[in-house]
Design a protein that fits this description.
The structure holds two protein chains of two kinds. Chain A is built from three helices and seven strands. Chain A is of the alpha+beta class. In chain A, strand 4, helix 2 and strand 5 form a beta-alpha-beta unit. The two termini of chain A are 13 Å apart. Chain B is built from two helices and ten strands, in the order βββαβββββαββ. In chain B, 26% of the residues are buried. Classes of the chains: A alpha+beta, B alpha+beta.
Chain lengths: 127, 143
């Protein structure tokens, strides 16, 4: 398993699959290219999803939460942040008032792109 | 512009602009963030409305040498974009002798820094950490 991300635009459509060099089974590295995708498409993106290793309900790491907050601060708008495991999906949204206060929602109906995200996560080749 | 000068570009709250003052190319990341913070908080960056709550602690500094597109050095301040990372299990207890003291909180954490930040959110003071390579215990006392 190796972590993968995807930028989602309006309509729930995958806009950009994020498979950077240096990704591992537990992390996606900092990426100027990913930020460029966020910025250039800032008016039509709705969120970002990434995969976590293992099964069961996933949860955000501190790195995840601080990255969510930093990207939203730069864009000036809030986004949805999905996290998948091999069999579950959650989405996080900022509720405040603290900068890192995000509420987790367990999802029982999965968007179509989740299957592709999991498939790419199971692909052994690295970006 | 001199060879040792660079234009600082900042992105904040959906806006983007250049700091009117030039930076030295060898400015540290901390110096770059400090200059950006002061300028954005006071409305000193054309194109970016003043924001007294600006905060660049989770931003990163990219540096670009002169090129055909821009014949001068550029420094760009943008949000970080990593995800994931190794997590630690944080247990927060009231001050006292384990295991008789009350457990206040339990959650996954990435680092000591994250644990301290979380301790601050629950209005307690970091006192001491210990215990194992996989698990970390944080002992707290009331402020």
């Amino acid at each position: 398993m190796i972590e993968v991300g995807v930028v989602i635009e309006e309509g729930g459509i995958p806009l950009h699959w994020h498979l950077p060099a240096g990704r591992t089974s537990a992390s996606l590295p900092d990426s100027r290219g990913l930020w460029d995708v966020f910025w250039e498409n800032r008016h039509r993106i709705v969120g970002f999803a990434h995969s976590h290793p293992g099964s069961g309900w996933p949860g955000p790491s501190w790195t995840d939460l601080t990255t969510f907050a930093a990207i939203e601060a730069a864009l000036g708008r809030r986004l949805a942040w999905w996290i998948t495991s091999s069999d579950h999906l959650i989405v996080l949204r900022w509720i405040g008032p603290g900068r890192h206060q995000y509420e987790e929602e367990m999802l029982f109906t999965e968007p179509e792109w989740v299957a592709q995200l999991r498939h790419l996560s199971e692909t052994p080749t690295r970006g | 512009m001199q060879d040792n000068e660079a234009r600082l570009n900042i992105t904040w709250q959906g806006a983007n602009g250049d700091l009117p003052d030039l930076m030295l190319t060898d400015s540290s990341d901390a110096e770059v963030k400090a200059a950006a913070l002061e300028a954005v908080r006071t409305g000193g960056v054309p194109g970016i409305p003043a924001d007294p709550n600006a905060d660049f602690r989770d931003f990163v500094v990219d540096r670009f040498p002169p090129s055909e597109a821009h014949p001068y050095s550029k420094i760009m301040l943008r949000p970080k974009t990593p995800f994931g990372g190794q997590r630690q299990h944080l247990y927060v207890f009231e001050q006292g002798r384990y295991p008789n003291n009350k457990k206040i909180a339990e959650r996954e954490m990435d680092s000591d820094e994250a644990a301290i930040a979380h301790a601050n959110t629950i209005d307690a003071t970091w006192v001491w950490t210990a215990e194992g390579q996989q698990h970390r215990t944080v002992w707290l006392r009331p402020q």
